[in-house]
């Protein structure tokens, strides 16, 4: 890609322009560059709205239930650990 226009649009300082001349590799012969080919993206598949609503419900339910499940497991382990310590003594 020829970045000349992009380089000039940014508004580089004079020292940057001098550096550009030091690193310049060559010039592009624009007559040999092929024209751009425009690609049309494939049409997107329409999914039924029912599945969107059900997946939204599942994700909302998991956002609520998963932390509760983790807390329940933590409390159960703590309770079990206390009983185990009392019975071991």
Automatic annotation (TrEMBL):
<dbReference type="GO" id="GO:0046872">
    <property type="term" value="F:metal ion binding"/>
</dbReference>
<dbReference type="GO" id="GO:0020037">
    <property type="term" value="F:heme binding"/>
</dbReference>
<keyword id="KW-0479">Metal-binding</keyword>
<keyword id="KW-0472">Membrane</keyword>
<keyword id="KW-0408">Iron</keyword>
<dbReference type="InterPro" id="IPR050668">
    <property type="entry name" value="Cytochrome_b5"/>
</dbReference>
<feature type="transmembrane region" description="Helical">
    <location>
        <begin position="57"/>
        <end position="77"/>
    </location>
</feature>
<dbReference type="InterPro" id="IPR036400">
    <property type="entry name" value="Cyt_B5-like_heme/steroid_sf"/>
</dbReference>
<keyword id="KW-1133">Transmembrane helix</keyword>
<dbReference type="GO" id="GO:0016020">
    <property type="term" value="C:membrane"/>
</dbReference>
<protein>
    <submittedName>
        <fullName>Cytochrome B5</fullName>
    </submittedName>
</protein>
<keyword id="KW-0812">Transmembrane</keyword>
<feature type="region of interest" description="Disordered">
    <location>
        <begin position="33"/>
        <end position="52"/>
    </location>
</feature>
<keyword id="KW-0349">Heme</keyword>
């Amino acid at each position: 890609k020829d970045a000349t226009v992009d380089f000039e649009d940014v508004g580089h300082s004079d020292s940057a322009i001098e550096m550009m001349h030091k690193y310049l590799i060559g010039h592009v012969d624009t007559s040999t560059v092929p024209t751009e080919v425009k690609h049309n993206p494939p049409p997107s598949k329409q999914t039924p709205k029912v599945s969107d609503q059900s997946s939204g419900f599942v994700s909302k339910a998991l956002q609520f239930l998963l932390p509760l499940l983790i807390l329940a497991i933590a409390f159960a382990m703590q309770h079990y650990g206390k009983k185990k310590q009392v019975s071991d003594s």
